[in-house]
Design goal:
Blueprint (H helix, E strand, L loop, with lengths): L24 H17 L25 E2 L21 H13 L8 E5 L5 E4 H9 L6 H19 L8 E3 L2 H8 L8 H8 L12 E8 L2 E8 L4 E5 L8 H26 E2 L9 E4 L9 H14 L13 H14 L10 H8 L2
Parallel strand pairs: 1-8, 4-5, 7-9
Antiparallel strand pairs: 2-3, 5-6, 6-7
Helix pairs in contact: 2-3, 2-9
């Protein structure tokens, strides 16, 4: 099977007219996820990086200190309470994005983001430029840094002292490990995402557990809706008229996620174990038509931020993808816990706020 580097643009299911009698969609998804697992076993192209751990060292057999749950009602949505993420000045974010798109100096080659929790990730200036100012496919690292920033913005939206959140968002490594057949509850990053010190809100009050995933080469999101008792699937490439092909891909993924989440409930919590085994599947109409794999990363992040259980809360204008990329670029470099030096132009723009 050829890959994207050889000129083939994969969509989530096999392209129409192409079938495989030997390999099931679930097996193909598993192979793609296993490839990423192998890549993380020998990271950074053999360069010495004292900050980074190989994936094998992120698994532990240490006892789990279960979090005791007293129970409680599911939270109301932030939109019903008039809450939203803080907004950046459009002119400010556009100015910095325009500067980065034209930037050619050596500063691009170094890391602009170095973030340690729940797993160590690095993102260079070149990565940011190619993925947010250009047309490069979004990487796992950049996507997960974006999820971390969305979680930080959720805390700001609900106020730092507020323990009741509407959603709990995990990073893409959760689904990647699930689809690869790994033991997720033994992974230190996954443990931190459910019961780590950074999780300040009461997860049992969350209506939605949001699970983004790179499925083959398309970013998607699975929403475990504890109120409606279903999984919402948002695939940016989904077409209703080709529902069967997409369902062949996502149905097994949802089954795998149910098993993994159920295991997390049992292993990580005491007094809270939602029964999600019989949850159905609902496919959500994508934000836009005719998207491709390159668009899927940004579209999935918008979906993670704006899906309200039925549709999308944001009113998207004609250039909503471009505007979101500009806002996202600014937010990524504003992430709390960044141990890298941001470019001077960005620091100057912060001083103007």
């Amino acid at each position: 099977m050829e890959n994207a580097d050889m000129g083939i643009n994969f969509v989530t299911p096999l392209p129409k007219g192409q079938t495989s009698k030997c390999i099931s969609p679930a097996t193909v998804t598993k192979c793609f996820s296993e490839t990423e697992v192998v890549n993380r076993m020998d990271p950074w192209d053999n360069k010495i990086n004292l900050n980074c751990k190989s994936l094998e060292f992120e698994f532990t057999d240490s006892p789990i200190n279960k979090k005791k749950i007293a129970g409680g009602e599911l939270s109301k949505s932030p939109w019903s309470q008039g809450l939203s993420h803080p907004k950046r000045d459009v002119m400010l974010t556009r100015k910095f994005s325009t500067w980065l798109a034209a930037c050619v100096h050596d500063d691009l080659d170094r890391e602009w983001i170095m973030h340690a929790v729940p797993r160590y990730v690095e993102v260079s200036g070149t990565d940011l430029k190619n993925m947010l100012c250009g047309r490069a496919t979004m990487s796992y690292n950049l996507f997960d840094v974006a999820i971390r920033r969305l979680n930080q913005l959720d805390r700001l939206m609900h106020a730092l002292k507020h323990l009741i959140h509407w959603r709990h968002i995990v990073e893409s490594d959760f689904a990647m490990l699930v689809f690869a057949g790994e033991e997720v509850t033994a992974n230190s990053s996954v443990r931190k995402q459910f019961i780590g010190e950074e999780v300040l809100h009461q997860i049992e009050s969350c209506r939605m557990i949001t699970i983004p995933a790179l499925v083959r080469e398309t970013w998607c999101a699975y929403f475990c809706d504890l109120k409606m008792k279903k999984f919402h699937v948002v695939d940016p490439l989904y077409k209703h008229e080709e529902h069967g092909r997409f369902d062949e891909v996502h149905q097994p993924n949802v089954c795998s996620l149910k098993l993994a989440l159920s295991l997390c409930f049992i292993e990580f919590f005491e007094g809270w174990n939602p029964n999600i085994a019989n949850f159905g599947i609902s496919y959500v109409k994508p934000l836009t038509q005719n998207a491709d794999n390159v668009d899927s990363g940004v579209l999935t992040l918008i979906v993670v931020r704006d899906f309200n259980g039925t549709d999308f809360s944001s009113l998207n204008g004609q250039d909503f993808i471009k505007c979101f990329k500009e806002q996202l670029l600014h937010e990524l470099l504003s992430i709390r816990g960044n141990n890298a030096n941001t470019p001077s132009n960005f620091v100057e723009s912060i001083d103007l706020e």
